[in-house]
């Protein structure tokens, strides 16, 4: 299936060969001729950003302008009709007649899915609450592939607020698909949600190793990412296990109580001292912005990859936009056996059961009353359903199942 005219709402929307084709196109973007760089001449992108952003919005806009296209930018919800109560559905049905592609960021989980349901032009999710951030994952995977030469078997630690960091959720799915070994290092209460772990397990057979701290001694062989490590590394510190250490900010804006945030903040700080324990060829990555997780005195270390990572955002988003607009040929290879192919997840009709709603208060269905709840079946749990918009799961009451 070609990429032309498609939406990108979740990293699950793309197959492995499609992701690889976008990476090949991103490689070409760096060396592209002027003519190719005019690929989006005359096209317009609208960016609807209802949450703060520096890198994502500006790199999308830089990408479109470098392709010769133009940009209509809403960088602040307070300056749009959303502040007057306009719904997502109405906003996108208006702006689709002004532009050719919509890039949307919202604090509501599932907002981009609603936008895509109502817009006839491609919609790209630039972050929906604590749910997903698929284009960040594209540039994160691209960075690892570029700097490590591969994704398969790379040992990656996801560190920090793995409960709320949407970048960590999408990246975990992306890494699992390409055969990386995932470890999670999170403080108590901020672990990767169980629904994300379940999906890693059921879709990709991936079982992340779980740690609390980066400078603990490894004493339990069962927590080592691979069986080879089990033989070699039992007396090493956690930090030395990884080829990629992907640090995330503690997501202050997503905490329900300030006390909870206070308890979690500054949980992990990569200091020059800690970096001494990392492998000489390790990469320190971070989607940015940083608060205090990365000390400034590690910035000059060649292993600090986060500014290079942010820079890759432009060629990757150029490739994605040109592909979705059908403005450049995309060579999509054949899927290798066993790799992930997007498929329609089985949706279940619960209308006969009356009013079954998603229980996540930050789900778009809680905020936009016209959006009818929709659910998928959850693999392996006959009594549970997951919200099509935000991915939160709920059990059906006994008499409903
Ligand atoms: C991230 C985001 O917005 O989720 N930033 C980004 O897009 N590069 C990470 C964050 O805000 O912590």
What does this structure look like?
With 401 residues, the chain is of the alpha/beta class. The chain folds into 3 domains: 11-133 and 312-324, Aspartate/ornithine carbamoyltransferase (Rossmann fold, 3-Layer(aba) Sandwich); 135-310, Aspartate/ornithine carbamoyltransferase (Rossmann fold), CATH 3.40.50.1370; 347-395. The chain has helices at 16-30, 34-37, 55-66, 88-95, 111-118, 134-148, 166-177, 194-204, 227-232, 258-264, 272-275, 306-324, 364-367, and strands spanning 44-49, 70-74, 101-106, 123-128, 155-159, 181-185, 209-211, 244-247, 283-285, 347-348, 375-377, 384-387, 393-395. A 5-stranded parallel sheet has the order 7-6-5-8-9, with helices on one face. The chain has a 4-stranded parallel sheet with strand order 2-1-3-4. The longest helix is centred in the C-terminal third of the chain and has 19 residues, at 306-324. The relative contact order is 0.16. The mean pLDDT is 92. The site of N-carbamoyl-L-aspartate has 11 residues, from helix 3 and helix 7.
């Amino acid at each position: 299936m070609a990429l032309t005219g498609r939406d990108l709402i979740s990293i699950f929307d793309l197959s492995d060969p499609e992701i690889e084709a976008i990476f090949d196109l991103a490689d070409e973007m760096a060396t592209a001729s002027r003519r190719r760089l005019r690929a989006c001449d005359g096209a317009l992108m609208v960016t609807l950003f209802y949450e703060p952003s520096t890198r994502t919005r500006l790199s999308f806009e830089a990408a479109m302008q470098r392709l010769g296209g133009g940009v209509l930018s809403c960088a602040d919800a307070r300056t749009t009709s959303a502040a007057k109560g306009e719904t997502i559905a109405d906003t996108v049905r208006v702006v689709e007649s002004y532009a050719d592609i919509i890039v949307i960021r919202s604090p509501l989980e599932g907002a981009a899915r609603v936008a895509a349901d109502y817009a006839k032009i491609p919609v790209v999710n630039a972050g929906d609450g604590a749910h997903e951030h698929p284009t960040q994952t594209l540039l994160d995977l691209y960075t690892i592939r570029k700097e490590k030469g591969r994704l398969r078997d790379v040992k990656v630690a996801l560190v920090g607020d793995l409960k709320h960091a949407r970048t960590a959720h999408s990246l975990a799915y992306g890494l699992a698909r390409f055969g990386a070994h995932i470890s999670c290092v999170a403080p108590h209460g901020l672990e990767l949600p169980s629904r994300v772990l379940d999906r890693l397990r059921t879709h990709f057979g991936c079982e992340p190793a779980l740690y609390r701290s980066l400078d603990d001694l490894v004493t339990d062989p069962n927590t080592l990412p691979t069986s080879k490590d089990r033989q070699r590394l039992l007396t090493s510190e956690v930090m030395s296990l990884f080829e990629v250490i992907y640090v995330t900010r503690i997501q202050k804006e997503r905490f329900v109580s300030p006390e909870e945030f206070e308890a979690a903040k500054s949980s992990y700080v990569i200091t020059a001292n800690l970096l001494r324990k990392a492998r000489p060829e390790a990469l320190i990555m971070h989607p940015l912005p940083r608060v205090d997780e990365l000390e400034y005195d590690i910035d000059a270390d060649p292993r600090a990859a986060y500014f290079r990572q942010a820079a890759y955002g432009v060629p990757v988003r150029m490739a994605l936009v040109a592909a979705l607009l059908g403005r450049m040929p995309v060579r999509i290879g054949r899927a290798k056996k066993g790799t992930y192919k997007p498929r329609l997840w089985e949706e279940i009709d619960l209308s006969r059961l009356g009013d079954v709603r998603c229980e996540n208060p930050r789900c778009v269905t809680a905020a936009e009353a016209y959006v009818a709840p929709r659910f998928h079946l959850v693999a392996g749990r006959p009594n549970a359903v997951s919200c099509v918009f935000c991915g939160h799961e709920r059990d059906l009451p006994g008499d409903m199942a």
